[in-house]
Amino acid sequence: MKSLILVLILLTTLESQARPISYVGGHTLMLNIGGQPDNIYWHYTPNINYSIGLDYQQDKISNEYFPSARFTYLLNRKNTAASQRNLYIKTGVGLTNADNHFYALTGDWETRRLFAGFSAKQVSGIGYDLFEQSAKIGIAPYLGDYGDLHTWLMVETKKDDLEDKRTTYPVLRLFKSGAMVEVAYHRSTDWTLHLMYRF
Amino acid sequence: MKKILIATSFFLATAVAQAGHHEMDNMHSHEGHLHETMVDGEKIVVDPQRFDIFVTDLDNSQIALVSVQGMVCDFCARGIEKTFGKDKSVSKIDVDLASGKVLLAYPADVEIDLADIKKKILNNGLNATNIQILAN
Q1: Per the UniProt record, which residue ranges are transmembrane (chain B) (predicted)?
Q2: Which of A43, A111, A142, A156 to mutate to test the interface with B (most CBs of B within 10 A)?
């Protein structure tokens, strides 16, 4: 069981932070546990401007799992010597029922020390529509070299139509080479775990 | 929440330790080494200790020193390592996040394709702003 957990940790990461487009030819595997909806998501980057992927996720209302196809397009990127800024549009549609679909606008700005990101997402399920918005900021308490263990201390805030209230909570991100782990805690949702692996 | 505070304290302590380590690195002297070479009248700008370690086991090679914009995390570095790792003419790779430099070693008889280097960097979502070629 421990081996299985270790393999899962090594083979996965988080959607909202890990850049949704990898290097050309790169694959990314993500796992989200504990935060509704749970999901496992794989994407491939055939071109630096977009990625395609498959998602197996839990419906937010019925809690049933369904597969979907996803597409992410890079609208804008700005690189400087010390930073990178990205703006993406994302969409996905259920493979078994097209009533399950979403589209989203997400963005991030990152230096080696600071991070800021946001997401605005319109989600439709069977019999419901939902608008979700979130933002996250973070700081790296130290600067590591490539291959070192990187640590980010972050705060995320979320709001959606379903709960109609804002939740804000701390997030700890650990990052090493192609693997990333994020652990978040909020008293209403308890612990959530996000894992990602890029290969 | 208590666990998060404990974890945060641990990593802050790690940060202090790492900062001390890097200060020691900067105290090292490297006069007369290859990293002080001039290329086209321009002195190369690279972490001296890192550069010296990179060229230690390289003979009869040429080195491309690539300045990269947007390289801010390990995912960027890993992508570059993977991309150039597939290029059989590249014998050694070093990615320095701190300075935004990538070092690529090639055999001396290989003609380095600067446009191909720029394209590979771009395929990682980054921009190569300057490439200098050094003979070792």
Answers
A1: none
A2: A142
Digit-coded pLDDT (tens) for A8-58: 333 333 444 457 889 999 999 999 998 767 899 999 999 999 999 999 998
Determine, for residues B69 and A142 on separate chains, whether the beta-carbon distance falls below 8 Å: no
> Which structure tokens are listed for A12?
């996965």
Helices B114-122 and B74-85, axial angle in degrees (round to 10): 140
pLDDT in tens, B31-67: 445 555 555 556 667 788 888 899 998 888 999 999 9
Asked if B109 contacts A53 with a C-beta cutoff of 8 angstroms, the reply is no
- Complex ipTM: 0.81
CATH label of the domain that carries residue A84: 2.40.160.40
Interface of B with A (CB under 8 A): 1, 4, 7-8, 11-12, 14-16, 18-19, 69-80, 82-83, 95-98, 100, 122-127, 129
Domain of B105 in residue numbering reads as: 32-135
Separation CA A69–CA B62 (nearest Å): 45
Q: Which residue of chain B comes nearest to A110, CA vs CA?
A: B72
CATH number of the domain enclosing B49: 3.30.70.100
Number of domains present in the structure of chain A: 1
Nearest-angstrom CA–CA distance, B8 and A150: 12
B19 phi and psi, to 5 degrees? -60, -40
Chain B contact set for A149 (CB, 8 A): 14
Identify the pLDDT of residue A30.
94
In a domain, B37, yes or no: yes
Domain, as residue range, for A112: 2-198
Q: Mean pLDDT per 10-residue run, chain A (199 residues)?
A: 42 50 93 85 95 92 91 97 96 94 96 96 92 96 94 94 87 93 86 92
DSSP SS3 for A178: coil
